[in-house]
Amino acid sequence: MKRNLRGGLYMFDREINQLVSAIKNTNEYKQAELARKAIDKNRSLKKQLEEYANNQKKLQGRYKDEQLKIKIEGLNRSYESIFNHPDVIKYNQASYSLNNMINNIYVDIEKHL
Fold first, then answer.
1. Does the CA dihedral 25-31-32-33 come out positive or negative?
2. CA-to-CA distance for 111 and 100, rounded, in angstroms?
3. I want to staple 91 with a disulfide (CB 3.0 to 4.6 A). Which of 16, 35, 49, 107 is the partner?
4. Is the CB of residue 39 less than 8 Å from the CB of residue 50?
5. The pTM is what?
6. Rounded to the nearest 10 degrees, how much is the dihedral formed by the CA atoms of 67, 97, 53, 87?
7. Cα dihedral angle (82, 87, 88, 93), rounded to 10 degrees?
8. Radius of gyration, CA atoms only, the chain
9. What tens digit of pLDDT does each residue of 76-111 get?
């Protein structure tokens, strides 16, 4: 074990690296990377997605509960054409699959603790 300077937690560096390597070798990760690279190549689309994320964060900082829900729905409507772009659809699907896989890993770890 080795002390982690970031948070003072003990980390298992070798085991973490093995887990990360295993994740990177999954189809879920590879598909998410391909989808992200496709978006990165389209500068206009990437910029619009970044603007959406920034606007969403601003709303989350300003509003709560029902007001936030209404504001986010309006934001989503204004970016609807972007969400229907084939590269964005592919990216969202790939990201969902990767996140789901990582969540399942977390659940499995939690079961064994």
1. positive
2. 16
3. 35
4. no
5. 0.77
6. -120
7. 150
8. 18
9. 999 999 999 999 999 999 999 999 999 999 999 999
